[in-house]
């Protein structure tokens, strides 16, 4: 393919625009931080330090006392390539460019997914939507795991779709296994994704026809997921003596979402008190990290059992926070920011709902476009909730939104073509 043919491709220009927008947004965000402040979020610092530890070959641990199962290694491993490339701590702009490139890859993935399900015009429109959608841009701005998680989520949906569309059993097995491996990689980046694959498989078995194919594809995906996750599971067992499927932050996250002072937003002010309590308890051969996680988990579940009404009320609050029409956090609640978020999010969501209704009867691959939104809603009605957590689910929804727009335009054209007056003209 010649250079000029590539240069004339609309998709190429969409990808270039997506990359430029994300680099510019990252630079703008960093320029707003006070002098001497490198990261706006504490999670970013944790990822950065763990990436440096991986690059140096140091123990994979964070904080004091050192937590060894604090974060899954997916995003730190990606960031560690920068430490290796710069032979030491890289400049922050390198991480911003890396995240922007991952965002551009996400746009290409959305195009590829839409092309598997619909036709080229819908695929290009879906890519344009994601390239310019502020929420999708935001996932590439911060040094947070969403930057790497989004392309992996879309890649898993692509592989799963190909598995479903393949005519041969061999191709179905291969792509289903690949989808499971991508699910494992996505989970190592974003631990909350762990249950998506079994959730989707069970839902498909209960609601869709062709149970045998669901079992075949689902089983292969679960095998792929387990293969990718098994090194992390073995490592965690060696460290703690227990099977830890993701991290030992589940207890803290659960208590953050359900406790006597919970509001639906994250507030980890309770952690020092629990740390002090656990430090006074006998170790009983367990690591401090494991004991702290267990204490927080038990405290949250006990509170939820004794306050079911408040727990249900919090679930409603978290639902509203996740799907709010504008930002929940005060630093993002200026009127220009509210208007930008509402004006782009509301039409996209409404079009996606219309697309889900229109195309889901066409088969399971189309249902997969809205299933991540359902999954994340259920997860974050338990844990804390924010607009940040819905953005990965908006990517496949953009495919449905683009398809319904193209379908509506074509339907209108067909109606015009059937108009006798237009035919006479």
Structural summary, described in words:
With 425 residues, the protein is mainly alpha-helical. The chain has 20 helices and no strands. Helix 3 packs across helix 4. The radius of gyration is 23 Å and the shape is globular.
Q: What's the tally of helices?
A: 20
Low-confidence stretches: 414-425
> Percent helix among the residues?
over 70%
Report on the biggest sheet: none
Radius of gyration: 23 Å
Q: Average pLDDT, to the nearest integer? A: 92
Give the overall silhouette. globular
Taken in chain order, the helices and strands follow as HHHHHHHHHHHHHHHHHHHH
Distance between the termini: 42 Å
Percent of residues in beta strands: under 5%
* Total beta-strand segments: 0
Which structural class should the secondary elements be placed in? mainly alpha
């Amino acid at each position: 393919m010649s250079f000029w043919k590539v240069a004339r491709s609309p998709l190429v220009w969409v990808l270039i625009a997506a990359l430029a927008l994300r680099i510019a947004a990252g630079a703008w965000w960093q320029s707003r931080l006070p002098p001497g402040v490198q990261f706006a979020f504490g999670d970013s610092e944790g990822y950065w330090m763990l990436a440096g530890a991986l690059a140096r070959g140091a123990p994979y641990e964070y904080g004091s006392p050192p937590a060894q199962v604090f974060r899954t290694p997916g995003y730190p491993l990606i960031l560690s390539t920068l430490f290796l490339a710069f032979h030491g701590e890289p400049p922050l702009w390198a991480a911003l460019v890396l995240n922007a490139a991952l965002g551009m890859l996400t746009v290409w993935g959305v195009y590829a997914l839409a092309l598997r399900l619909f036709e080229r015009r819908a695929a290009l429109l879906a890519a344009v939507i994601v390239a310019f959608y502020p929420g999708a841009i935001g996932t590439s701005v911060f040094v947070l795991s969403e930057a790497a998680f989004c392309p992996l989520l879309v890649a898993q949906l692509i592989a799963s779709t190909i598995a479903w569309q393949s005519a041969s059993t061999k191709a179905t097995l291969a792509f289903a296994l690949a989808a499971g491996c991508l699910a494992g990689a996505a989970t190592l980046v974003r631990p909350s994704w762990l249950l998506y694959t079994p959730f989707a498989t069970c839902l498909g078995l209960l609601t869709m026809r062709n149970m045998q194919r669901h079992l075949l594809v689902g089983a292969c995906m679960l095998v792929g997921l387990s293969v990718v996750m098994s090194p992390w599971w073995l490592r965690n067992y060696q460290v703690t003596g227990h099977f830890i499927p993701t991290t030992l932050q589940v207890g803290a996250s659960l208590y953050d979402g359900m406790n006597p002072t919970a509001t639906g937003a994250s507030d980890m002010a309770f952690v020092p008190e629990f740390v002090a309590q656990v430090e006074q308890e006998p170790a009983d051969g367990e690591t401090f990290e494991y004991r702290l996680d267990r204490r927080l988990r038990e405290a949250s579940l006990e509170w939820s059992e004794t306050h079911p009404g408040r727990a249900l009320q919090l679930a409603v609050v978290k639902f509203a926070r996740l799907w709010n029409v504008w930002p929940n956090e005060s630093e993002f609640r200026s009127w220009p920011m509210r208007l930008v978020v509402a004006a782009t999010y509301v039409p996209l969501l409404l079009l996606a709902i219309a697309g889900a209704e229109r195309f889901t009867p066409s088969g399971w691959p189309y249902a997969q476009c809205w299933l991540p939104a359902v999954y994340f809603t259920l997860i974050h009605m338990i844990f804390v909730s924010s607009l940040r957590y819905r953005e990965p689910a908006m990517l496949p929804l953009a495919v449905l939104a683009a398809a319904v727009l193209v379908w509506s335009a074509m339907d209108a054209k067909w109606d015009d073509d059937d108009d006798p007056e237009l035919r006479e003209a």
